[in-house]
Design brief:
Layout (H helix, E strand, L loop, with lengths): L3 H4 L4 H4 L16 H12 L2 H14 L14 H7 L3 H9 L7 H7 L3 H14 L24 H8 L2 H9 L15 H9 L1 H15 L2 H7 L3 H18 L4 H20 L4 H8 L17 H8 L3 H4 L2 H11 L11 H13 L1 H10 L4 H6 L2 H23 L2 H9 L2 H12 L8 H24 L1 H6 L1 H33 L16 H18 L11 H10 L1 H36 L31 H107 L11 H60 L23 H107 L11 H63 L8
Helix pairs in contact: 3-5, 4-6, 5-6, 6-8, 7-8, 7-9, 9-10, 9-12, 10-13, 11-12, 14-15, 20-23, 21-23, 23-26, 26-28, 28-29, 32-33, 32-34, 32-35, 33-34, 34-35
Keywords: ANK repeat, Calcium, Calcium channel, Calcium transport, Cell membrane, Cell projection, Coiled coil, Cytoplasm, Ion channel, Ion transport, Membrane, Repeat, Transmembrane, Transmembrane helix, Transport
Organism: Arctia plantaginis
GO molecular function, one term: store-operated calcium channel activity
Length: 998
């Protein structure tokens, strides 16, 4: 076999055998002008790039589509530097885009993607491949199956995906992994690895959350179906199982993130009850939870276990017993015991009147669970009573004497017994179980029924009980016929029955059915937060337990075969020779055989003459050979000495040349690093100024926010009716929100600026370290260049091969220096937009704050004018009220004087009437004078009453006027207090607010 190391020696006989593989075309070396061109593009030097491109169009002195040693063209460098102006210039000047669109998408340069898409629409012709499809696959960065939309989906860039979808980009559905079409067969035959990677790339794109959100009308359903498909792919392609499982988790997490966006129970109910084939869910409808059932079918565990869903399910679960979880443990036990004891009543009432309040309560999930669990526990109790023959024990303990004697006679009868009442109850329960399983199959379908492993236990239990019933019926008829033929057969002891008697088999199956019935009780443990996870863990361990049992059975079977063979051989020895061997005796250990020494003849006491002659001849021949070898060594030594001296001179000259070239290269890289370091220092200084501006702005905003809060606090000191939620308060709160919004924006941009400064400092540190290393390398190489072979400071080391610990190739070194320069340039280019963004943001925020400030001041002035107007109006009303009070007091005085006058007139009239009443005899006549006096008294009384009424009303009006005067004075004081707060206190504080761009 020919090895590569043999070919490296240059043996001409082997050169015809080894033929190097055909390699892809490598980038050609760059000229000095092309290097300057690419370096100018990388640095963002628009002037030089434009000048070079214009000159290239005139005289073609460079290739504008040239690439460096890493395969990066000018467009790639501009995209890496995120220089949109440079990208636009290169595209306009006719530089081939090639796969620049894919590079821009990979760098997530949105503006460049839009620009390149517009350019592609202009230059593309129908029927021709796109620019990125024309690149040689051997040198392309991306595989041919990668499209722009697929790459954008890999990056999960929402903006780019939306741009591509708006322009009509599509992502076809991948073929099924078991697809047998001609295309899949051809691709798999040509290159199975590329075919698998292409499918993986397609599914990696399909699993993009942004693509699903933008392209799917039902993102949650799409995430479920994609997750299930990826699960099947993970099992179908074991080589890429880890990648497919990661994508499956990504799709599941997307569905969970969508669920996080629900803000109310109504929204969550609409999501979980959505069914494309059914009308939209309306609040108040019965919750079918179709989407949740679909999530369970697709095994979306994180979706089902989401806290929002669990909260909704808990509210539905405990709907029949509100507040159950907040009750004490004793109250919970009391509720459960009440339902457990009354479950026959609930079941009967539900069958009779399902639409009554209690019947509707029984339909609630929690009540249904409690009733079902209570019924099943009662069934297990019946099984225990049947197994323990509880009827017999009850009669023996509590029955009368005649019943005990009848029982003893009945117990002597071993065969032909009828089923007991408890066994009939068991049969009724079994019929109910069978009906329940049949209904479940009819409603959910056989496939869903078989998917639940607990249904297999139920089916086995029901089948065993049916077999027990059939065997018991067959045994009853068989034993009855036997008793009719021979009555003594009913007293046959069980020990003498046939081993395959139907009743014995039925009793064995009944015991097995009881085991499965008790095993179903484990299913109820899943509701417990401690036993439930243990049950799930046990279910996960079933496969491992089966595997271990298989290995155990295999070892046990092998051991059994060996023991059987040993016993068989022992039996044969015993039959033939009468020798017995104990099975299991320890096996004897093997021993190593002894080998004899050969090839060493016995040594005699003396040598022979022939041996003596042979020894002398051999010594002479050895001496001649050594002399000839010494002559050859002397000649060879002289030749080697001359060649060594000549080679040493050549090697020294070569080393000196290489040292000079190396010093020049390192010095060039050092100058480039120093230039980038200066850029970084200047950018850091500029960013420091911007940081100071942001901090000062934040301080001023905080002061303004404090002033607005103080204004709110001062305005809370308004009194009476003026303590109103007016426009000023609303505008003040809006101004505070505006200030807080501006602070949030400035804090975010401050964090970005600080992060950029940190990255710049980190890059500067790397540059300083690289400069230090390069300066040390230059000093060492210069010192080495100045050394001569005659210097006294030279040393020779043993093991010189370990003196050069370099483990970095020249290409890696160049890449390291270039990467440092590129990283520095990229960070500098990234810092400039931040400063522009800070300027724009500060101006916009300050303008918004001034707008809010002016609007608030306008509201203050408007409110002050309204308050001053109200105060002026109240003062006018106060003056008028005071005048009215004075008038009313004068009126009351006049009324009192009139009343006093009327009292004299009334007394006069009454005195006259009294005097006239003293007339005697016929003189006591009702003459006109008397009538006039009567009329005068009545009119005076009426006048007095009117005056008293007016005096009362005047007094009441005066009292109300005085109260109104007091209220007006209080309102005026309130208005004065409000004016002092708004006009003096608040406006004085607000005059200290000063928003400006620092």
């Amino acid at each position: 076999m020919v090895e590569k190391k043999d070919l490296e020696t240059g043996d001409p006989e082997l050169e015809c055998i080894w033929k190097p593989m055909e390699l892809p075309t490598l980038p050609k070396s760059l000229t000095l002008e092309e290097k300057k061109y690419l370096l100018a593009v990388e640095r963002g030097d628009m002037g030089n790039v434009k000048r070079i491109l214009q000159k290239a169009h005139r005289i073609k002195h460079i290739d504008v589509n040239c690439v460096d040693s890493l395969g990066r063209g000018s467009l790639t460098l501009a995209i890496d530097g995120e220089n949109l102006e440079m990208v636009e210039l290169l595209v306009v000047m006719g530089v081939e885009t090639k796969d620049a669109l894919l590079q821009a998408i990979n760098a997530e340069f949105v503006e460049a993607v839009e620009l390149l898409l517009e350019h592609e629409e202009l230059i593309h012709k129908d029927g021709e491949p796109y620019s990125w499809q024309k690149v040689d696959p051997n040198i392309a960065m991306f595989t041919p199956d990668v499209t722009p939309l697929m790459l954008a989906a890999h990056k999960n860039n929402y903006e780019i995906i939306k741009i591509l979808l708006d322009r009509g980009a599509t992502l076809p559905d991948p073929h099924d992994v078991k697809c047998g079409c001609e295309e899949c067969i051809r691709e798999s035959t040509e290159d199975s690895l590329r075919h698998s990677l292409a499918r993986l790339n397609e599914y990696r794109a399909l699993a993009s959350p942004s693509l699903i959100a933008l392209s799917s009308t039902d993102p949650i359903l799409t995430a479920f179906e994609l997750s299930w498909e990826l699960r099947n792919l993970a099992f179908a392609e074991q080589e890429s199982k880890a990648e497919y499982l990661v994508l499956r988790r990504q799709a599941q997490l997307f569905a969970v993130d969508l669920l996080d966006q629900s803000r109310s129970s109504k929204e969550l109910a609409i999501i979980l009850n959505h069914d494309p084939d059914q009308p939209a869910f309306v609040d108040g409808d019965h919750m079918k939870l179709a989407r949740l059932e679909l999530a369970i079918d697709f095994k979306q565990k994180k979706f089902v276990a989401h806290p929002n869903i669990q909260q909704l399910l808990a509210s539905i679960w405990y709907e029949g017993v509100p507040g159950f979880r907040r009750k004490t443990a004793i109250e919970k036990v009391m509720i459960i015991c009440r339902v457990a004891l009354l479950f026959p009543f609930y079941c009967t009432l539900y069958m009779i009147a399902p639409n009554c309040p209690t019947g509707k309560l029984v339909r609630k999930p929690f009540m249904k669970f409690l009733i079902h669990a209570s019924s099943y526990l009662f069934f297990l109790l019946i099984l225990i009573l049947v197994s323990q023959r509880a009827e017999v024990q009850a009669i023996q303990l509590f029955g009368p004497e005649w019943m005990v004697k009848e029982l003893e006679k009945e117990l002597l009868k071993q065969r032909g017994n009828r089923p007991t009442y408890l066994e009939i109850v068991v049969v009724v329960y079994v019929l109910g179980f069978i009906w329940e399983e049949t209904q479940e199959i009819y409603i959910e379908g056989i496939r869903s029924y078989l998917r639940n492993m607990w249904n297999f236990i139920d089916f086995t239990r029901n089948s065993l009980y049916v077999a027990v019933t059939v065997l018991r019926v067959a045994a009853y008829f068989q034993q009855t016929s036997e008793i009719e033929r021979d009555p003594q057969t009913k007293f046959i002891p069980r020990e003498k029955w046939d081993a395959f008697d139907p009743q014995l088999i039925a009793e064995g199956l009944f015991a097995a059915a009881n085991i499965f019935s008790a095993l179903k009780l484990v299913h109820l443990f899943s509701i417990n937060p401690y036993l439930g996870p243990l049950q799930i863990s046990l279910g996960r361990m079933v496969i491992d337990i089966v595997k271990f049992f298989f290995i155990y059975s295999l070892v046990l079977f092998a051991f059994a075969c060996d023991v059987f063979l040993k016993a068989f051989l022992n039996k044969m020895d015993e039959e033939q020779h009468g020798v017995r061997h104990a099975i299991g005796a320890p096996i004897a250990t093997t021993r190593l055989a002894e080998q004899a020494l050969v090839g060493i003849p016995p040594r005699t006491a003396k040598f022979t003459i022939d041996e003596w002659v042979l020894s002398n001849d051999s010594r002479c021949r050895n001496a001649e050979d050594q002399q000839q070898l010494a002559d050859r060594i002397l000649a060879e030594s002289k030749r080697v000495k001359d060649e060594t001296a000549e080679r040493a001179e050549i090697l020294k000259a070569t080393s000196d040349k290489l040292l000079k070239e190396r010093i020049g290269d390192v010095d060039f890289n050092k100058r480039e690093l120093q230039i980038q370091r200066e850029y970084i220092c200047s950018e850091l200084e500029a960013l420091g100024v911007y940081k100071t501006r942001l901090l000062e702005c934040l301080t001023s905003f905080e002061n303004a926010c404090d002033i607005c809060r103080k204004c709110l606090i001062l305005r809370d000191g308004r009194l009476g009716i003026d303590l109103v939620v007016d426009e000023v308060e609303a505008v003040l709160k809006q101004e505070i929100e505006t200030i807080k919004g501006g602070q949030i924006l400035l804090k975010k941009v401050l964090e970005q600026l600080q992060e950029q400064m940190r990255r710049l400092r980190s890059t500067r540190y790397l540059l300083d370290r690289d400069l230090q290393y390069k300066q040390a390398a230059i000093d060492i190489d210069k010192q080495n260049l100045s050394l001569k072979s005659t210097d006294l400071c030279l040393s020779i080391y043993e093991g010189y091969a370990n003196l050069d610990p370099a483990n970095i190739s020249a290409e890696e070194y160049n890449n390291y220096s270039s990467s440092n320069i590129l990283a520095a340039a990229k960070e500098v280019n990234s810092a400039r937009p931040i400063r522009m963004y800070v300027d724009t943001l500060l101006k916009q925020v300050v303008d918004d704050l001034w707008h809010a400030y002016n609007r608030c001041n306008h509201a203050f002035l408007k409110r002050i004018d309204e308050t001053r107007g109200a105060k002026t109006k109240l003062e006018g009303m106060h003056v008028e009220t005071a005048q009215k009070i004075a008038d009313m007091q004068s009126n009351i005085t006049l009324l009192q004087k009139a009343l006093s006058d009327r009292e004299g007139n009334t007394a006069l009239a009454h005195t006259r009437l009294g005097k006239r009443a003293q007339r005697i005899g016929a003189e006591l006549v009702r003459d006109p004078t008397g009538q006039a006096l009567y009329y005068e008294c009545a009119m005076l009384r009426r006048s007095t009453e009117q005056l008293q009424q007016m005096l009362f009303e005047a007094t009441a009006s005066l009292r109300y006027l005085l109260q109104t005067q007091i209220q007006l004075e209080e309102d005026i004081n309130v208005k004065m207090n409000t004016l002092k707060i708004d006009e003096v206190d608040c406006m004085t504080l607000r005059e200290t607010i000063n928003y400006h761009v620092f």
